[in-house]
Design goal:
about 575 residues, alpha+beta, three-stranded antiparallel sheet, about 35% helix, about 20% strand
Length: about 575
């Protein structure tokens, strides 16, 4: 009998599909669809029910391996469903329709793919022409609805995911290829999200709630711009490997701020000609403040790192997706997955320890006040100056059997960075000791134990943790401006805490010189995104849950030459 498709064994058909599909690893395997349409026999032989191995291999060839499931949790139906969903999203993006009615499903799928990417997902996104699509979306669709919102862009689910994806796909090469006009356009489009903290929160939950509960009462204040704390889209449900999974939308502000700084940094600070050349020359002539070499150093080294930036440190020994673990667990609330690398909550131990450098922006007070008092968005959005920011951080843990710091009232975040009001602390190389007002408590925090760090960077499961890594109840962050930077830009000390529910870092900053009261006390609040940049907003210290009279943005990246 002559050979025919009908008489071809299923195992041989499987190999034909896999060999043909591997000739073009980007995009859906068109050969599979074509063969399944030829006849009932081929359709049955190549169905997921009949050929689980083939679907497993198709997923493995095209997408980064799944890391977020314990062994044995996935079935062929799960994999086949996820394959279909991803290919639908990729094809929609490739078609380039920024007004597609299913764009929310597509963008949520793309966002999860980017957080899970170890290389293969990005190849598929390039096939889909994602960079072209996202640029078009920001320029053509981001401001849809702003005309009925007093000129302010909306923080809906689609816009949140679009801005987040736009940052996650950023790389230094693509930013260098942008024209100055396009960079300015991106900055203008995203400036409202970056600066208008009274409208666009920078946090996954209420800023002032250290231990948020599902039904926590919300303090509400109203003024010209509306409700504070602002209401934002918080959660939805996505289909992940064929199962409905709760999905917490990230706040749009941190990603907008990262886009903002990365574009500003293409324009170096100008060097005033009257400045001394070096620090030695400044000291010899009794001149304080920055020198020309200080500004040159800032322009070269203080750059916001794109998600794929290689640091040359232990993070680069991890799979790329491991850097996104805190971001992933903040968003995808899958009951089957528990991250072994985030203790406590959404934070990888050891991430913030070291020297960080970057910049902050300080808007003019009157301009910010006008923005608060007016319901309409300024047009064009004002631009502001950028200033260098340097700090060397330590992270310190409260291990069992020590008792962590008590919690103050919710308003304590605005006065003392989640630390009890009136407490005092004494820091040494061995750790930091806190004493409560009227000696009402004592708490001791020490540097992270080696076994604790290994959890974050090597990865393990709960059954593999060493006993000395257990019992890390709380994380305190301390920081200081080193002398070489303090001489140029002013010196500060920092003290704060990490919120375990989402990894929010809140720091109280005070001048090193108590006589320099004009420098003031300030609060820095933000997240470390993709284990690469500490980004957020800063404001003057205040009391109570009220909109800040003045608030701005900052972005810090780790200086790996320090390690």
């Amino acid at each position: 009998m002559s050979a025919s498709l009908i008489t071809t064994p299923a195992e041989l058909l499987e190999q034909i599909v896999l060999i043909a599909a591997r000739q073009h690893l980007q995009g859906p395997p068109s050969v599979l669809r074509s063969l399944r349409l030829t006849c009932r026999m081929a359709n049955s032989a190549l169905s997921p029910e009949s050929n689980s191995y083939m679907y497993f291999m198709l997923f493995k060839d095209r997408f980064s391996p799944w890391r977020h499931f314990p062994g044995g949790q996935l079935t062929v139906d799960n994999i086949e469903h996820e394959l279909r969903k991803r290919f639908r999203a990729l094809q929609r993006i490739r078609r380039g329709d920024v007004a597609d009615p299913d764009i929310l499903e597509s963008l949520s799928t793309i966002y999860v793919m980017m957080l899970e990417d170890d290389g293969r997902n990005w190849d598929q996104l390039l096939w889909a022409r994602l960079p072209i699509f996202m640029t078009r979306f920001l320029r053509e669709r981001l401001m849809v609805g702003a005309e009925t919102n007093n000129g302010w862009p909306t923080e809906n689910e689609v816009n949140v995911l679009a801005v987040s994806i736009f940052w996650l796909m950023s790389c230094s090469e693509s930013m260098c290829d942008e024209t100055d006009e396009l960079r300015r356009e991106f900055v203008q489009l995203l400036s409202p999200y970056s600066f208008a903290g009274v409208r666009y929160p920078c946090f996954t939950g209420l800023e002032y709630d250290f231990c948020p509960l599902e039904n926590s009462p919300k303090t509400v204040v109203t003024s010209a711009y509306g409700v504070y704390s602002p209401i934002r889209p918080v959660s939805t449900t996505i289909c992940y490997f064929g199962r409905p999974v709760p999905f917490n939308l990230p706040p749009v502000a941190p990603y907008a701020i990262l886009v903002h700084f990365s574009r500003l940094e293409t324009r170096p600070l100008m060097i005033p000609p009257h400045l001394p050349e070096t620090r030695a020359e400044a000291v010899a002539n009794g001149i304080s403040g920055p020198t020309k070499e200080d500004i040159v150093y800032f322009n070269i080294h203080c750059k916001t790192h794109s998600p794929g930036t290689m640091y040359g440190n232990r993070f680069d020994t991890l799979l790329k997706s491991r850097r996104h673990d805190p971001d992933w667990t903040r968003s995808v609330r899958d009951p089957l997955y528990r991250s072994p690398s985030s203790l406590p909550g959404q934070y990888i131990p050891g991430t913030i320890s070291g020297r960080w450098q970057g910049s902050f922006i300080a808007p003019y007070y009157d301009v910010y006040k006008d923005m608060l008092s007016s319901p309409s968005a300024p047009s064009p959005f004002p631009t502001f100056g950028r200033f260098p920011l340097y700090v060397t951080f330590r992270e310190l843990y409260c291990y069992s059997p020590s008792i962590p710091l008590p919690l103050g009232g919710n308003e304590g975040v605005f006065e003392n960075a989640f630390l009890p009001i009136g407490c005092r602390w004494h820091e040494t190389e061995a750790g930091v000791e806190f004493t409560g007002k009227n000696a009402s408590f004592k708490a001791y925090y020490s540097p992270p134990r080696r076994e604790h760090l290994e959890i974050g960077f090597v990865g393990g499961t709960a059954g593999e943790l060493k006993p000395s890594a257990h019992g890390a109840f709380d994380v305190i962050i301390t920081g200081v401006t080193e002398d070489r930077y303090a001489a140029a830009w002013g010196g500060y000390r920092y003290m704060g805490r990490i919120r375990p529910s989402d990894g929010l870092i809140v720091l109280l900053r005070e001048p090193l010189d108590p006589q320099m009261v004009e420098l003031g006390r300030a609060l820095f609040r933000g997240y470390i995104i993709s284990s690469r940049n500490f980004v957020g907003r800063w404001r003057r210290v205040s009391s109570g849950v009220h909109p800040p009279e003045w608030e701005s943005i900052f972005s810090l990246c780790k200086d790996m030459s320090w390690e």
